[in-house]
Design goal:
mainly beta; six-stranded mixed sheet
């Protein structure tokens, strides 16, 4: 017997089969599968796949699905594992699997969409309060908070650069001579009466500018006698409507005040009804303003001067005043 041939054959057999046995014993099992949308059955790429050993939670292995929704994950040993799949917009899927030596094929794992009802979204923006357009300063009325019963006088008093004091309105230190409503005359040359009898909630914007005198407007030449003017732009829909207010009060020594106003806007027509009765020496327009109204052929009205009775004054009976102005 040729021992040399025998030992050579054993050596060759050992050299060939030993690596195969070593590879078989040391090969790591594989966990694989596909992910799809449970509703549309479309493949889901970039799904996060995490495998955690149940025996030792510190041993965690992860990967993600490819463009075909396929994933393959190799683990170092057989045993129980917790598999978790997660993807943005979908509910996470979790399961426990027992991985054998030959590996574990999950097949298709279906993920359900995660529908979340969002809370109401409020978009806030800072309102622009003042804008400059050439020689006109324009205020956004909605940017200034007033009480529900506020008048235009209360509103303009909150605007920067505007001062209302002792019945006089000043803008940047100059007295306001005229108040327009939508570009038309309102209460003639009495800006205070116009502002006091117009409610703030019908105002959209307030413009301030220097208006040419009547003579300059007629001739077309600026004579330098401009008037500081406020033009009140009303909200949409106000050009045809009615609005007004009533008020009253009673105090000690039988002092009282009661009054009201009614405004009727009908296209280009502006009709205002004003009534006032009191014994506290209160007027909502000057006597000269009333006389000017009565003397104007374009307006009609009636009224009485305010009373001057006071404590111990012995004045005339409680006064009343009423005026009707139609433009």
């Amino acid at each position: 017997m040729n021992y040399r041939f025998f030992f050579l054959a054993v050596f060759l057999a050992t050299a060939f089969f030993l690596p195969v046995l070593a590879f078989g014993q040391g090969a790591n099992p594989e966990v694989a599968g596909f992910t799809r949308d449970a509703k549309t059955n479309e493949r889901l790429p970039a799904v996060n796949v995490v495998l955690t050993s149940m025996a030792d939670s510190l041993k965690t292995y992860g990967t993600s699905t490819n463009a075909r929704g396929f994933f393959s994950l190799t683990v170092p040993a057989t045993g129980l594992y917790r598999l978790q799949l997660s993807f943005v917009g979908y509910k996470s899927a979790a399961m426990q699997i027992d991985v054998p030596a030959e590996g574990y094929n999950l097949g298709f794992v279906l993920l359900d969409e995660d529908t979340v009802a969002l809370d109401e979204v409020v978009v806030e923006e800072v309102q622009e309060r003042v804008t400059i357009k050439g020689d006109t300063t324009e205020y956004n009325a909605g940017a200034f908070k007033t009480n529900p019963d506020a008048s235009a006088e209360d509103l303009v008093g909150k605007m920067p650069g505007v001062v209302v004091q002792d019945g006089q309105v000043q803008v940047q230190g100059e007295n306001v001579r005229r108040v327009l409503v939508d570009g038309r005359e309102y209460f003639g040359d009495d800006p205070t009466a116009a502002l006091r009898n117009l409610p703030a909630d019908v105002i959209a914007r307030v413009q301030v500018f220097d208006r040419l005198s009547d003579q300059a407007q007629f001739s077309g030449f600026d004579d330098g006698n401009s008037e500081r003017t406020i033009n009140i732009i009303t909200t949409t829909g106000t050009e045809n409507g009615q609005f007004g207010k009533i008020y009253g009060g009673y105090g000690s020594e039988t002092r009282y005040i009661a009054g009201g106003s009614m405004n009727i806007f009908d296209g280009n027509r502006r009709i205002s009804l004003i009534g006032l009765s009191n014994n506290v020496n209160q007027q909502n327009f000057a006597n000269e303003d009333l006389l000017g109204v009565l003397g104007n052929t374009n307006r009609g009205g009636f009224g009485g001067g305010g009373g001057f009775g006071g404590p111990g004054g012995g004045g005339p009976p409680p006064p009343t005043a009423a005026e009707v102005i139609a433009d």
